[in-house]
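Write out structure tokens for (S)-ureidoglycine aminohydrolase.
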Amino acid sequence: MGYRNDLLSSRSIIRHGSYALITPEGLVNNIIPHFEKCTISVVASPKLGASFVQYLVEMEAGGRNTKGFGGNGIETFLYVVKGSLDVLIDGTKYELTEEGYIFCPPSLSMIIENNSNESAKFVLYKQRYVPVEGIKEPWVVCNNVKNLEVVNYDDMEDVTIVDFLPKDMSFDMNFHILTFQPGGSHPFIETHVQEHGAYLLTGEGMYNLDNNWVSVKKGDFIWMGPFVQQATYAIGYEPFSYVYSKDCNRDPEI
């Protein structure tokens, strides 16, 4: 990287236990055991206040993890931003291309391999599964966003949503993509128990985080903690979209 060529500054905002905006220019490489030929940035973890761990990963050609990721009560999820990957779960190989994704249940683990000639960029996620008596464990889900139904969000034609995982009580989490056409916005400022980890895929927006309006754009990561006020509207000349996690289908413990 070499010497700086300007003042040291950053758009990133960290509010432990509340929310965080993490911009790409400040990311550093985190060395994670059993991952080879990878540049990994941990962008959310319990150290921040999140109940999950989320990573942004760039895997070189020939890269892989040599030990299963997840399992023993930890469910995992992977979304391909760029390139292609092979994922092995319980002896089955799944081939993922750009916008492909896979969910791995908490009793299994995944091996991730880049068998192509180019690097691959992906979002990686893990959290501890919350079992419920009488409800079966979730199952492997593998698909591509291109195959999913796009529906209007809250009956608005300029905001759409895509749901990645089944709406089944076995799943205590989901991933979605929200897309806002220029000028599109949430219908109100939300306040809810769920938390989110959002990776911005396209465009630019203004985001309300705990009643602070901040500018965000493609490549940023946002963590939103429980009950943090949140909403956004798209700015610029192209759609503003992000892929994000959400915990669901569980009664909060006391």
